[in-house]
Amino acid sequence: FGYDLYGFVSVPPIGISGEEHPALIRRIELRPASSSEATTTIPALDALTESGLEVNKVIIDRGFSYKTANTWANQLRDRDIEQVLDMHPAERGRIDHHGIAMIDGWPHCPATPQQLEALNRPGLGSTKKERQHFDTDIEERSRYAMRRTKGWSTSPRTGTACERYECPAEAGQLRCPHKPHSMAAPAEVPVVLNPPRLADAPTACVQRTIAVDDTA
Description:
Layout: E1 3-9, E2 25-32, H1 37-50, E3 57-60, H2 69-78, E4 82-85, E5 94-97, E6 100-103, E7 106-108, H3 128-142, E8 147-154, E9 161-166, E10 210-213
Parallel strand pairs: 3-4
Antiparallel strand pairs: 1-2, 5-6, 6-7, 8-9, 9-10
């Protein structure tokens, strides 16, 4: 009984203040109660794009993480749209995928410090100091995140959907002995401590870029 209201609000890019880029309601969709979030949101995003608004990232409710890949995630990939959402605590942490560290759904250097693998967001009532500490940890971990160099495409060899990434040393975020050219970076660029042995290192440590498929 009733209706579902979907609001699409523009938010400023990282580093841009709200005064320079105000949060404006760009679109509203009204549907009967218990409507499908995905089948309502995807056409609305298309309509926003057709109106001339660039849409390359969406910040969404955690409930979207329960949608099937074909209904939601793959639809965004086909449109080169990245999703940002608050993951369930059970989904956080590190999972090893062919030697790389998948942390909170993003590929990271296998030598990412253990204390940065599971960072719990401060809850309601947290102090300013606690929030600043969390932001500092997130910023430090971001140095170990791999950088995406190519969006989703279908591999002609395997027929699977994949993206391409480069390791943080290739991206200039870290210095690593496995990427000798990175060691020439300024001294303020952190050095990877305890990298995997070269004989056991994943392909990310020895190749320019790697493919990460949709099973990661």
